[in-house]
Amino acid sequence: MVNCAPVFNYGTAGGTWEYHGKGYEAMTVAPHEGDSQLELVSNIRLGVLGARGYGRKTLTEGQSAFAVLSWGEGNVPGSEDEAFRALNTTVDCHGDQQRDAFRRMSREDGRGT
Question: Would you say residue 91 has pLDDT above 60?
């Protein structure tokens, strides 16, 4: 399940969601005033309910899903493999404890070494 309900301006302002790209797997949300913008990308079909971007998918054994919330000028992962590589890079930057926890989770889902 994806449930993203961002608020802007220190929690006082909601935003407006828009789909971008083809299909329903990528959206942006921006406040009514200002130039901030968040991007939500997933391999789950996304929808809008009020101020919330959401998605739901039932996974069976061997299936997986991803969702990425991003901001700024960087490249947003567009696939599960890209998201996994970006997460691995992030974890590599944050010390042994987090790296070890990530590797344990990766081994459990069959991706890590």
Answer: no
pLDDT by residue (tens digit) across 7-60? 998 888 889 999 998 899 999 999 988 888 999 999 999 999 988 999 999 999
What crossing angle do the helices spanning 80-92 and 95-108 adopt, rounded to 10°?
150
Q: Please identify which residue in the block is written with the tokens 């299909």.
A: 23
Q: What tokens were used for 19? A: 């789909």
104: tokens are 């344990």
Task: Burial-class residue 109 by CB neighbours within 10 Å (0-12, 13-18, 19+).
Answer: exposed
Spatial distance between the Cα atoms of 91 and 104, rounded to a whole number of angstroms: 12
Inter-residue contact 53 to 40 (CB < 8 Å): yes
Please tell me whether residue 10 adopts helix, strand or coil conformation.
coil
- pLDDT for 39: 93
51-77 mean pLDDT: 89
Backbone angles phi, psi at 69, to 5 degrees: -110, 125
